[in-house]
Amino acid sequence: MKQENKIIITIILAALIIASSIFFSIRLTGNIVDTEYNSELSSTNNDNNEENDLIGMHIVTKIIDGDTIIVEGKNVRLLGIDTDESGYPCYTTAKERLEELVLNKEVILEKDQTNKDQYQRYLRYIFLDNNNINLKLVEEGLAIARFYPEDIKYKEKIIEAETQARENKKGCKWDKEEQTKPKEINNDDDWSKLIPEDVELDIIGACNAGNYIGKEKIIEGRIVDAYRSKTNTIFLNFEKPYPNSCFTAVIFSSDIYKFPENPENYYYGKTARISGKIKEYEGIPEIILKSVEQIEI
Predict the structure, then answer these.
(1) CA–CA distance, 88 with 86 (Å, rounded to integer)
(2) Is 85 an annotated catalytic residue?
(3) pTM of whole model > 0.90?
(4) 41: in domain
(5) Could you tell me if 206 and 238 are in contact, meaning their C-beta atoms sit under 8 angstroms apart?
(6) 1 located within any domain
(7) Which domain holds residue 216?
(8) Is 121 a catalytic residue?
(9) Using an 8 Å Cβ cutoff, are 221 and 239 in contact?
(10) Hey, which residues does 281 pair with through a beta bridge?
């Protein structure tokens, strides 16, 4: 009887040892898998963070206007400054100067506190040969100081530069003769469809559209931001970003199929003409686009 009890106890102990070995083996394997997964996840997050940061050395591939550039296919807005939009006196001067300074050159992008604006443009200071390009444009009288409250890294220097440029009447922003130059109008040779003589409509600048509510006109200006709402309505804002835009072209979801794919990307940054009856919505003049024939870029 004692011999049988010993055998039973031995079997139970062996079973417990085997079960314990299996349990710890599973835990160990699980830890290895978890470690590998966490390592992979951490790596992915680091990659995303690097992409989101967009800092360090990059090549400028395109100039949108005096305070917006393209870097590696991404829109970058110069922090701390603001330049004229299309149709205003200093637009071309600021844009051409920025092209001269940084186009096709390797620059250093530097962050402040705000990573992107509401239009998903990266907000950065740009440096070339240790020169702060944002500051330089203000010093030359081509831009004014404009900051988000939390972005203060170079705020004092840029505000001081604007004060000096204004007091010395330096550059296009503070030279009265430059300020009073007439608005640039595109030559009709550049357009093939929305020409006043052909469609029997007058052409007006986007920022004058509010003076013609209820009338049919051709609106001309630059689309500085474009947005697709949750209801798939497309808003093309002219000359100034929403909510300060001079004019908005609206494409409702039911008509999107008539336009190029992803209209908000296709038309963004383009100079365009819009034809139709001008309406007003929440204080902003707009034209509803029902057909692609109403817009030309």
Answers:
(1) 6
(2) yes
(3) no
(4) no
(5) yes
(6) no
(7) 188-296
(8) yes
(9) yes
(10) 284
